[in-house]
Amino acid sequence: MGYDTYWVQRGFSVTVLLLFMLTLISCTAKNAAQFKNGMGYATCTFCDLRYDDFSRRDLENADFSGAYLFGTNFSWSIARNSRFESAIMYQGRMEWADFDGSDFSKASVGGTALFRSSFRQAQLRLTDLSHANLTGIDLTRAHMVTAILEGVDLTDAQMSGVNLRSATLRDANLSNARLRDADLQGAVLTRANLQGTDLKGANFTAAVMNDASFANSYVHTTNFRKTNLNNADFSNAILDAVNFQGARLRHANFKGATIKNVILQGADLCGAIMPDGQQIPPCPEKATSSLTTSAAVSQMTSIPPAETGPATADPVVLLPRTDAPSDMTPVPPSGDRPPIDATLAPEGNATLDPSAQPTPPVIDAAAVHLTVQDNRRMVAVPGNLFAKTEKGIPAGVIAETLDVILKKMGFSPIYVSMPIAEMPEAVENGFVDVLAMALPTGKSAEKLLFTEPLIEEFNTVLVRRNEPFALERIADLHERKLGGREGYIYPLLKKDPEIKLQLFSSDGEMIRNLILGKLDAVIISGISNLYVLRSEGIMAQLDVLKKAVGMVPMQAALSPGKFSRKELELFNKSLKEFKQGTEWNAVLEHNGLSDLVRPWEVASP
User: Fold this and answer.
1) Structural domain containing residue 61
2) Which residues, 6 or more positions from 347, have their beta carbon under 8 angstroms from its beta carbon?
3) 257 and 299, same domain (yes or no)
């Protein structure tokens, strides 16, 4: 290359670089100013917008692709169907915002506050969300393949139908999250906390879940086929129609677990602790998983000593149910051929021998259900503010009250977290004996024993701060733009045809519309929501009207198979005495509800 040619090319490169920088600077200055001035422009790609404030804006269909958004504030904004592809958004504020349908592919959003925000059907492929606060986030049907969510807090997150294939959720907290029908095939969830998580229909095929915790949880129709679950904790869990085929479960803890319709074919259970507390012996180094499964089945089907008490559930068969995950291998009718079970061949080599086991292995219910004492009672809690379990310890006003009353009656309560919708079936199937929160409606009103209300939930009315209005009668809500929740019933409001409610899928979406002035008031389902809003600092922007517009009694329900009518009367008597004493006030105080759990005055019809 000649001297002149070299400098010509170099000069050309410098010119192109300068033009690019001038364009970027121009874009940054012009577009940033337009955003700040509210001129309605919806494009600011590759802009430097660090620490800018876009809170409470309407940013639908905006384009921030490649933008530098470090520390930028998008809280309470509506940015549906917007583009943030490859944007840098570390340490930002995006709480209570609406990003439904937006594209965050390859964006860096680590350490950002995203609690109560909405990302329904959003694109988050290869997005880095490490150590972000995602508490209460809505990720329904979001596409998150290979996303990075290390150390994130997903407590109470809505994640039904989310696609998290090959995603990284190491050390993630998913307690009480909703993962129904979620796809987590090949995902990494080492040391993840899934206590109380709704896993119905979730697929964890070939996932890595070493040291994950499912303790005191209801795991129903979940697929763990070929999943690595070494050292996983299933203690005191309820496992119903779960597929562990080919899974690695070495040193997993099933102590106290209730197991029914679980597939263990080909599973590696070396060193695992069985429901009765006995441990499977360590396997030889060269032993296969089939050998381990055979040993486990033998261990689990052993009949416990007579002093352990009678069985309280039907025998458990290691076969899939009709509502089991779709990836489960179907079992032909018994008339065609016997089920395959892991056995030992005559030579001593581990193998699968379909003819060696003429009948399916049956687990004795007394061994699996661990009814060591007649006074043991399984209590289902929904995992909300009023009733939840923290490492097996009851927490919340209702759960703590139940614990006191049941122990006073001589019972030993064991707590398991499950969705309220699953509770009636769980008590009918004998998995649980007490429902911490239940309403006497439909068939449950006839089949269960309902207690006196432990507390009363009131439908309260929220308005923007310093914009209250008089509410004496329901008619005072006429001609006002009101928000309510989908799936909730408001009896007093329903009786008045002049009341028009706009329904929302979440409290976050409803309150966002109130804050942005699109609604005059919103109906909050209960005082528990007021507590959550107050703890998140949102109540600084809102006022509560003095009168409520409805009341729902929060009752517990007892299984008639485990409690008599006389015991129900004793429960109610003990509850009344407890609520008249100082211990009740102490429970309300340390739960932060002493000023909210009270008789609210209800507006007249």
Assistant:
1) 42-198
2) none
3) yes
